[in-house]
Amino acid sequence: MAEQFLTQHDQSRLLLVIPRYASAVQYGYILPLGILYVSAAIKESGVCPVFTVNLNHQTDDDATVIRNLFAEHRITHVGTTGISGQFSDVYPLLRLVKSLNPSVRTIVGGGIITGDPLPAMQAFNGLADYGVVGEGEVTIVRLMQALSSGADLCQVEGLVYADNGHWVLTPRCPDISDLDALPLPDYEGFDYARYLATNGEVCNGVRYSPVAIVGGRSCKYNCTFCFHPTGSHYRQRSLDSIFAEIDYLVSHYAVNYIALREELFASDARRVIDFCSRIRSYPLTWSIQLRVDCVTASVVSALAASGCRYVFLGIESADDEILRSMRKHITIKQVEEALELTARAGLATRSSLILGDAIESEESARRTLQWWHAYRHRFAIDLGLIIAFPGSALYQQARRNGRIPDPVQFLRDGCPVINLSTRMSDEAYSRLAVEVSRCSGISFHPHSYV
Q1: What is the maximum alpha-carbon separation in the chain?
Q2: What is this structure's pTM?
């Protein structure tokens, strides 16, 4: 059926592009796995010819690369992705595509669209023809089918687009319940070997490039600063599925470091202990993300015996009132116990504190900074200011109370740091930003829309 479809509707030819990140040369970048999953889903479906490029590993300028691909493959559609803070990377790509061939239709997915679909599409100012809301594997296949056959786009779930001057937002596609049924990400299509060779960190002469493995999607918690573009229901892959991907990566690439990207991987202690038992036979180091209330003696013991390189702990604040406001469902006592438990097991931890919650005060911020000073010599704890990413509860609150009066401009500005607190004046918040910048070595410049 797929071959017959392509023969009849060969006019749709899709190019998927990872945009060139402005910060990649200096800091490296994190490969967006979502577009790799989308590419694999389209290729498996056979709905249309698919071509791929990762601009971060191209020696020619973007215009030359895209122009050559257009000419070689007769591209009719271009798809790309990004998170909200990457607007300044995605926008130039779309502008370039339209300048090279205005008839090429553009598709944008990822958190940049899903967080707040209509303002995002408005921010692109006509450069994005279609936005994909939520998980893209099913929606993109149905979109390409509809575009090739001329079917009504209103029947495609998970889309946002303009129709005769009016915005159309179709119902969101149901969350993909069986993650094991998805094909493995399209690593080959996006220069994965070169990505591993140029990203990561060097330790004792060895480069460790984190190979991200997504073991689950979404989260059952609703922290105010978080947004989950992959759906509202938490789902996990089976360990068999995860290890099938690890086996593939080990056999195809120079892999030495696996990074489990799933906040709740250890919410089932038996699952993480089983994973530790299986990963021990691989010549790999690895890292895991944990909630502090999932850190138990049995879990820590299993991690320490399995070659775990880092444990990433979500702390966010050292003030219990702020933690409650953030809906973290943890206490600073639990944080301290988790840090001590991992330290005794010889596990390295990395974590962060983000100041500026909706009820942050000068006093609560001072307590968190004092706690950071007490612990920073023993543990790697980053300092930062909270950001109201589109889709998060903080963002919705900031829109309601006028802190973000223009969501389109907010996105165009790169989702800047702003004062979200109802307990701090802008002057006090600016002083806090100066202090956080001094302690962290990172410059924070609060933006004001009011």
Answers
A1: 68
A2: 0.93
pLDDT digits (tens, 9 = 90+) for 307-339: 898 899 989 999 999 999 999 999 999 999 999
Question: Same domain, yes or no, for 120 and 213?
Answer: no
426: domain CATH number is: 3.80.30.20
Grouping H, G, I as helix, E, B as strand and the rest as coil, residue 210 is coil
| 195 domain-assigned | no
Q: How would you label 69-106 residue by residue, b for 16+ Cβ within 10 Å and e otherwise?
A: bbeeeebbbbbbbbbbbbbebbbebbebbbebeeebbb
How many domains does the structure of the chain reveal? 2
pLDDT, tens digit, for every residue of 388-446? 999 999 999 999 999 999 999 999 999 999 999 999 999 999 999 999 999 999 998 89
Calculate the alpha carbon distances from 17 to 55, 78, 112 in Å.
7, 7, 15
Instruction: Examine the fold and report which residue of 148, 169, 190 is the final residue of a domain before the chain moves on.
Output: 169
Contact 100, 67 (CB under 8 A): yes
How many Cβ atoms are within 10 Å of 274's Cβ, its own excluded? Answer: 13
Q: Report yes or no on 186 lying in a domain.
A: no
Q: Which H or E run contains 279?
A: helix 269-279
148 and 208 together in one domain: no
Print the domain residue range for 88.
12-169
Residue 80 CA to residue 19 CA, distance in Å, equals 7
Any domain includes 209: yes
| Tens-digit pLDDT profile for residues 128-152 | 999 999 999 999 999 999 998 999 9
- Residue matched to tokens 């994909």: 132
Domain harbouring 137, CATH code: 3.40.50.280
> Helix crossing, 297-304 with 269-279: angle to 10°?
10
Question: Given a cut of 50, is residue 3 above it in pLDDT?
Answer: no
**Element counts in the chain: helices (H) and strands (E):** 18, 17
Contact 263, 289 (CB under 8 A): yes
With contact defined as beta carbons under 8 Å apart, do 450 and 403 qualify? yes
Q: Is the pLDDT of residue 375 over 90?
A: yes
Q: Where are the beta strands (DSSP E) in 174-316?
A: 201-203, 206-208, 211-213, 216-217, 235-236, 257-260, 285-291, 308-316
Mean pLDDT of 349-362: 97
267 & 215 share domain: yes
Residue closest to 371 by CA, chosen among 424, 332, 314: 332
Half-sphere exposure in the Cβ direction for 116 (13 Å, CA): 26
- Give burial (CB, 10 Å; 0-12/13-18/19+) of 163: exposed
